[in-house]
Amino acid sequence: MSPKAFSIVYWTTTVLIFLFEGLMPAFTSHTPIAVEGTRHLGYPDYFRVMLTVFKVIGALVLILPVIKGRFKEWAYAGFGITMISATVSHWAVDGLSGQTIFPMVFFGILVLSYICYHKLNSSVTT
To answer: Contact, 97 vs 88, CB < 8 A?
Structure first.
């Protein structure tokens, strides 16, 4: 693939992550559905608030081009852990369902963004 194609895939996947893992939680984490969803999984309410703050920060780190290097690496790692943990939590409580699989779909999008991020950075430095 050309650097332009990697750039398109990178920005498309990164914007999706930003929208679904950063912007959406920022606006919906206080809704009754979100509160009940966190409670249903057995987590305390402060965990929902803390997770929302970290998701918004991580999404900003991924989407802002001025932030580079280890900050982005930590954001990718944090989102990866979050998505794997969400899958395990839903599976443990509700069994295999759409809510169990959905975080893994986003994990795949995250991995694609990560691969393209590194491919773009390696083509810039070489």
So the answer is: no
DSSP 8-state code for residue 29: T
CA 38 to chain centroid, in Å, comes to 17
Alpha helices in 29-97 (DSSP H): 32-40, 45-63, 70-94
Tell me the pTM: 0.90
What is the distance in angstroms between the CA of the first residue and the CA of the last residue of the chain?
16
- Return the number of other C-beta atoms located less than 10 Å from residue 111's C-beta: 14
Q: Exposed/middle/buried for 116, CB within 10 Å: 0-12, 13-18, 19+?
A: buried
Confidence of residue 121 (pLDDT cuts 50, 70, 90): confident
Q: Which residue has the tokens 């966190």?
A: 38
At residue 98, the pLDDT reads 84
Q: Is residue 125 pLDDT above 60, yes or no? A: no
